[in-house]
Amino acid sequence: MRLGRGTSLRALGAAALLLAALGATRPATAEDLETLKARAQSVADEVTNLEHRLEDLNVERARLDADITEANKSIAHLQIEIEAAEAAYRAASERFVERAIEAYKAGGSSTRVALLLSARDLDDFFMLAQATSHQAELDAASVHELMDARDEATRLQGSVDARKQRLLSASTQAETVAGEIAGTLERRREALSRLTEEIERLEEELRRRARAATSAFPGARRPTGEPDRELLEKLTGAGPSLRIPDGFIGTGVIFEGLASWYGPGFEGNSTANGDKFDSRLYTAASKELPLGTWLHIRHEGKGVVVLVNDRGPYVEPRILDLSKAAAEALGMIGKGVGWVEAQIIVRA
Question: Would you say the pTM of this structure is higher than 0.70?
Fold first, then answer.
């Protein structure tokens, strides 16, 4: 399978132009961030495709190497058969010549001996001897049988060697393609890393500007007053807890990865399930988990129970975006991201 190079290169080129524009002309906006995230996702998808292709090639190379090893064993075995057949053939030929000469000498026929000695080669000798001796005919049949066995072993060895050469050619081609894919994969990973770093920088810039706006303008959105009562009831049981608290049961479904947190600038926004976002409450965003999923999350000796009610994060390879309260419970404020272990839990 050959990947569409044009699409990914266009994505990288557009991302590069966007990065240059951001650095040269104006502050970043949320739209810029979403555009970069889309570019990063495109490159991440290509990286995944390349990784799968490289894995398939490595499996194919291993199979070819195993076939080549078997071919080498067959060639060595056939070589032994050829050498044994050659030795038997030579011995039978010598016996045939010795017996034929002795038989005709004993018979006293100088004419017959002279006839045998006039043979131009061994085949002529066999033919002349067979014409005058039944025993020589039997000996000649044995010689020809051994000669046929030797020739058949030689033919088989040539066939196996030809197959081995085809396998070697296929293995070399697979190795070349794998090397090209590995090089392309490395470059795509580097591009994805640069895009991820820029996304993190833009996210931090947007957070910083949101915090500045909240401080500068009293009317800016920020958590004020009491949290929504209905949402508080929905979140009963959520909060800091090193272990799974009473009222919940662990499912044993555990996953790990990088988590980030969000808060400033999102206060009062509607989450994916319709709740109003409140950074003081224990919630989380996930791209894949069903909305309404409960999680027990651990990080560096701390734990928290949260409810998934939003979608995100859209920066690979992050798996969760936590509310500020959840991040504080895990000691992640000031870190930006942290490695977490999460278990899906259900109400008892």
Answer: no
Q: What is the pLDDT of residue 118?
A: 55
Average pLDDT of the chain to the nearest whole number: 78
In the chain, domain spans: 1-220, 229-347
Which residues on adjacent β-strands are paired with residue 303?
298
Q: What is the pLDDT of residue 51?
A: 87
Burial call 224-238: b when 16+ CB within 10 Å, e when fewer: eeeeeeebeebbebb
**Inter-residue long-range contacts of 60-69, CB under 8 Å, 24+ positions, other chains counted:** 60/174, 61/171, 61/174, 61/175, 61/178, 64/167, 64/170, 64/171, 64/174, 65/171, 67/167, 68/164, 68/167, 68/168, 68/171
CA angle 233, 326, 295 (to 5 degrees): 70
Q: Which CATH architecture has domain 229-347?
A: Beta Barrel (2.40)
Residue 122: pLDDT over 60? no
Residue 223's alpha-carbon distances to 88, 228, 235, 281, in angstroms, are 99, 11, 17, 10
Q: Which pLDDT score, from 0 to 100, does residue 319 have?
A: 94
Give the integer Cα–Cα distance in Å for 134 and 57.
64
